[in-house]
Amino acid sequence: MAAADVRALIASSGLPVLEARVLLGHALQVNRAWLIAHDTDPLTDEQVSAYQQLAERRRAGEPVAYLLGEKEFMGHTFRVTPSVLIPRADTEVLVETALADLQGKTRPAVLDMGTGSGAIAVSLALARPDADVIATDVSADALAVAQKNAISLGARVRCAQGSWFDALNSAGVPAVYDVIVSNPPYISSSDAHLDQGDLRFEPRQALTDFRDGLEAVRIIVAGAKQYLNVGGSLWLEHGWDQAAAVRELLVAAGFQRVSSRRDLSDIERISGGYL
Ligand SMILES: C[S@@+](CC[C@H](N)C(=O)[O-])C[C@H]1O[C@@H](n2cnc3c(N)ncnc32)[C@H](O)[C@@H]1O
Asked: Does the pLDDT of residue 3 top 70, yes or no?
């Protein structure tokens, strides 16, 4: 094979240029500026092979974030593995909404249920270092990733394993919270998207409740009141067509000032209310 260079590898990869560049940078452990400055330098067989393996996996559909092992969220770099959902930019609205509710509260207690990579909990703890942030998940593997992210990003987050509110049986966690947030699995088990694109590679239990998509929301809404301070809030991320149903559940459970927030695509994707 003729000696390959950066330019040739990117052109022949069958991937969008931006993705090819990111994967090649990762394989060579160099940044974009290096790739541009050295685009006709010959690469070693090892470098070419490292890149081609990544490109092959990408062509087979594996998400770029899993190939890189990281994803940006709220300006922080989170480690991600196939045990956790890849954090989505839309979820930043949930973090910003929670932060707005924490304004004026000193040393608030915050609960992130179904933390996955810890993206929400760690971002909240970094923005509010005085907060006591508890992150839960049913998946021990996910919690291990969240814990690593908290440590590497210098966030004070305590992790507790268990199904929804059962995780709070661990000793030492607050009995009540100022804000509870969750981005629970909300895709219906019958949704064909589960077998398409990046979702095929993400943990099933992070995506679907294996029912109609609202089962986890029902559990969280029904249980949250018992764990909220008076005036405390609950905010949930949900699907593009679930806002009205989630608001209805919140109102039925006795929440006040129930409302929804729009995501970056102007769709109601977060709903919540106050006790
Ligand atoms: C949509 S992902 C959200 C991950 C992360 N919070 C984020 O926004 O990127 C849902 C998370 O809920 C967790 N989960 C699923 N069932 C659960 C249960 N019964 N109790 C607690 N967590 C659960 C999954 O393991 C997954 O990490």
From this structure: no
Instruction: Pick the closest to residue 141 from 80, 86, 88, 99 (CA basis).
Output: 80
226 CB-near residues (< 8 Å, 6+ apart) = 165
Give me the half-sphere count of Cα atoms (radius 13 Å) on the Cβ side of residue 224: 33
Calpha distance 99→174 (Å, rounded): 19
**pLDDT band at residue 74, thresholds of 50, 70 and 90?**
very high
Q: Which fold has domain 82-274?
A: Rossmann fold (3.40.50)
* Atom 19 (ligand 1) nearest CA: 163
Distance CA 154, CA 90 (A): 24
Which residue has the least CA distance to atom 7 on ligand 1? 87
Determine the distance separating the centroid of ligand 1 and the alpha carbon of 237, expressed in angstroms. 11
The CB of 213 under 6 Å from ligand 1? The reply is no
183 lines ligand 1 (CB under 6 A): yes
Ligand 1 close to Cβ of residue 82 (< 6 A): no
Strands 157-161, 132-137: pairing kind: parallel
Domain spans of the chain, in order of start: 6-60, 82-274
